[in-house]
Amino acid sequence: MNKIKVCLFFILLALHFQISAQQNEVKNILFVIVDDLRVQAGVFGQDQMITPNLDKLGQEGVIFNRAYCQVPTCGASRASFMSGLYPTRERFVNYKASHDVDAPEVTSLPMWFKENGYTTISLGKVFHDPNDDVNAWSQKPFRAKTDRGWNKCYYSQENKDLIKQGKKGLAYDKADFPDDAYIDGKVAKKAIETLQELSKSEKPFFLAMGFQKPHLPFSAPAKYWDMYQREDIKLADNPFPPIGAPAEAIFKISGRTDIFNSTEIRNFSGIPKIGAMDDSTATTLLHGYYACVSYIDKLLGDVLSELERLDLHKNTAVVLIGDHGWHLGEHQQWGKHSLYDRVLKAPLIVKVPGKAANVKTNALAEYVDLYPTFCDLAGLELPEHLHGKSFVPVLDDPSKKHKEQVFARFAHGETIITDRFLYTEYVNKYKGTLKSKMLVDLKKDPKENENAFWKYEGTEILNELKSKLSKYQDLNNK
């Protein structure tokens, strides 16, 4: 009798572990892409922005302190990580970049999942162009619109008056309208409806959802602006060019025409065409950015609550990224078109059933690693073209190292980032010859206030960085 009881005990124990494993098995992927979201929120150890849902997601998953995009502009960044390829001087160059034009020969991330039996759905801004790689999705990609236009969402009387006068709108907008009057509110609503439909199917899903805000203009419902007191908003404490920085590294201040000069924020009314912002304008821009992030945070919470209500969270991996970082006045820059750590480093939060939770990792990762990681989580074979490496081992043990270095490029600059250093080489856009260099010691100078190239010139450290970057250039710029 005792033997029978013992046997039954072990059978029940085995069944328990089998059921637990099944419950923790990743079946679905929810991939959330937030436009222009920089590494700033409570979840990243900062207190300026109000982001309870991002914070909660971080508590339930792994927060990557050092994840990097490949290209700091939306179209190129997305085309790169959705293709699984590094950018080159000819591929994934600017915001117009696309998989179909730049890398049609490789199978994209959503197409790979679709070919492997997944329902694949795109809601909001996933690829920059909604018509890019359209056949990779099981249904037509959803893009919300409003009567105010695809992206502007101007509701305030001030902006209405400017537009009636034939002028450009402001870089921000505050109006007392509901969440779903705005594009991202409509995307979140559609995501909730889609999850409800997907919960009825036995087929696994890959659901990509893209929020546009906090992309310019900083338009958000008034209640999110009202979460912040203007007098509490702190301006950047380093609103000056880095000491010794080459002109190529300061895109938003220079008026030169022989280097890339970002004009994104300069195209709005009330913004000087060149030079520094006054403190009042800078405060308003910060206020608008914070409001937009809190708005997106609320929408994210709505979607994740529905995922949990439908009991899908038990077998769904949630991965949230910003497509790149953003400057909010640091070095007098407002935007993303540069090769600083502040811009190349971007949010990456990964919540996976059965993996580590409520932990941060300093493992270096880059966005070309997303494609192989998704495949690894889903148990899919990897296509041969991938340049990245799965970081699933880090999700099991966040203390593990993942990579020795990561790479990025933009316009005429190419960058290598290691545990301690960020080194960039700028080339002449006509001849391709080396023009200038910038080295930042991120340990001694985390705010990137000095070009330390001259301090390390001729050292083994700099020679090694040059050598590794050269190998990357030789491989990817043929």
Structural summary, described in words:
The chain is α/β, with parallel strands linked by helices. It has a single domain, classed as Alkaline Phosphatase, subunit A (3-Layer(aba) Sandwich). It has 14 helices and 17 strands. It has helices spanning 2-24, 52-60, 74-83, 99-102, 109-115, 157-164, 183-198, 222-225, 279-309, 341-344, 370-378, 392-396, 453-456, 460-476, and strands at residues 28-34, 62-64, 67-68, 119-124, 172-175, 205-211, 218-221, 316-322, 327-328, 334-335, 348-351, 359-361, 365-366, 405-410, 413-418, 421-427, 434-441. The strands form 5 sheets. It has a 7-stranded mixed beta sheet, sandwiched between helices. A hairpin with a 2-residue loop joins strand 15 (413-418) and strand 16. Helix 7 runs parallel beside helix 9. The longest helix is centred in the middle third of the chain and has 31 residues, at 279-309. It is globular and about 60 Å long.
Low-confidence stretches: 5-24, 252-260
Shape: globular
Q: Please report the number of helical segments.
A: 14
CATH class designation? Alpha Beta
Cα radius of gyration in angstroms = 23 Å
Termini separation (Å)? 74 Å
The number of domains: 1
**Mean pLDDT metric:** 91
CATH topology-level fold name: Alkaline Phosphatase, subunit A
Strand content: 15-25%
- The residue fraction in helices comes out at 25-40%
Largest pleated sheet: 7 strands, mixed
By oligomeric state, this entry counts as: single chain
Main structural class:
alpha/beta
CATH architecture label? 3-Layer(aba) Sandwich
What is the number of E strands?
A: 17
* Spatial arrangement of strands, main beta sheet: 4-6-1-8-11-2-12
Can you say what the CATH homologous superfamily is?
Alkaline Phosphatase, subunit A
Cofactor: Ca(2+)
Family: Belongs to the sulfatase family.
InterPro entries: Alkaline_phosphatase_core_sf (IPR017850), IDS (IPR035874), Sulfatase_N (IPR000917)
Pfam family, one: Sulfatase
